[in-house]
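Narrative of activities, Objective 1.

The group set out to show that a structural description can be obtained from nothing but a protein's sequence at a throughput compatible with the screening campaign. Below is one input-output pair from the validation batch, recorded exactly as produced.
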Amino acid sequence: MPLSTDTISTPAHATRKMRGTGRRFRGWALASAAACLTLALTGCAQVDTTAPSTARAEPAHGAPAKFGTVDCREARCIALTFDAGPSENSARLLDVLKEKKVPATFFLLGKRHIEKYPELVKRMAAEGHEVASHTWDHRILTRISDAQIREELKRPNDAIERLTGRKPTLMRPPQGRTDADVHRISKELGLAEVLWSVTAKDYTTDDSALITKRVLDQSSRDGIILLHDIYPGTVPAVPGIIDALKARGYVFVTVPQLLAPGRAEPGKVYRP
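Output recorded for this entry:
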């Protein structure tokens, strides 16, 4: 199934030269998108994926996952996910999610993010959100050695476990780039990979109304929405997204809840 090009990447030397989180990630994303213009609009690569409905139909033998507050076999579920935080915008986002009673899944970066905002990581976990990994330094995993892949995945796992008491079971590869080596190493580290079906391309605009429209235009049952709380236009869009999707009958869940009673299996890739 084609992958989206929505996430962001840059070489390590470029990272050191760039300042300002939003500006840095915006530049990476635009460069990545430009590189993919000659390919299908839905992505730059292909990989076998497992749909949430398939996961739900294959619960772990003798140990099905908990449903939480909703059974997505019956309900019209959708998952709200945020990449590349925590950031200075994350506290406000958490306030919105708490007010709206919506759980989310956070794919966190280590360097300059988990390191800088450890209390926000703790708060995410304490308030019932799923805390997952987006690697340590946002390196493209398909372009680095096995040892470097392990480092990119192990460091945020260890940092998140120290802060929350729970090691992540999910990760999102930067730019959605993955391959057999990434699958194998993810499996060794107990990680399943999670992609997405809805992208606001919020790295291209600060227009909250446009971000909202893009999400609503693409959303459907079992959708996994990709947003980035590092951008100034994204968090202001979230209340409207939530209200509009609730009005359409959607129920917000974390990614593990979306798969229940199935569980995300290490080494597998999940995408609606």
